[in-house]
Amino acid sequence: MQEEQQAAIPPKQEVKREIVEFVKMIAWFLVMFFIVKTYVLEGYEVQGPSMDPTLSDHERIFVLKLPHILSQFNTFSGINALEEGDVVVFYSPVEPNKRYVKRLIAKGPDAQPGTVNAGDRNSAAEVTRVRFNEGAVFVNNRRIEEPYLEPDERESPDATGEIRLTPRQYYVLGDNRSVSRDSRSFGPIDDKHVVGKALLCFWPPSKIRLIK
Known about the structure:
By secondary structure, the protein is of the alpha+beta class. The chain is built from three helices and twelve strands, in the order αββαβββββββαβββ. It is elongated and about 80 Å long.
């Protein structure tokens, strides 16, 4: 009888070991999920029509965050995380905790290592200039091509005057210009507001695609 009781102990220990291993696996999964969501890739739901036809209301997208995060460190300062024409997600500079998705139209000049931006927007050597003319956008006097716009959006309301971007500033616009609230109303956004680059639309399944 005693031998039967001793023989029954190992299965209980095995169950306990499996439970511990399962808990460890769940814990590691949660840690990895947190790391990926915080620093690498995050899902985001598009709200509103400001990016039609590129992105529609309630579509879900993946936002790549890691390149932009790395570019904040001197070691990776050469990383060009964002390019003109990219679709980006960022925190609103005027509405706390609200995120927008817009197209990056222009960015300030590259910051030189070892220099400090004094905020002098009158220096031609340290600014990127953005202006509008009858719906067309000019960056440093170069008209940019915008194949992502619908024909009727090329005559959308313009910002007045010339906008000057200093290093680590971005000018963003919605593709549906006539209804979009963007840099024409709240001005350029700072680097610290950027979440990352919109990479892929994954929902609904019938509209899975890379975002261009």
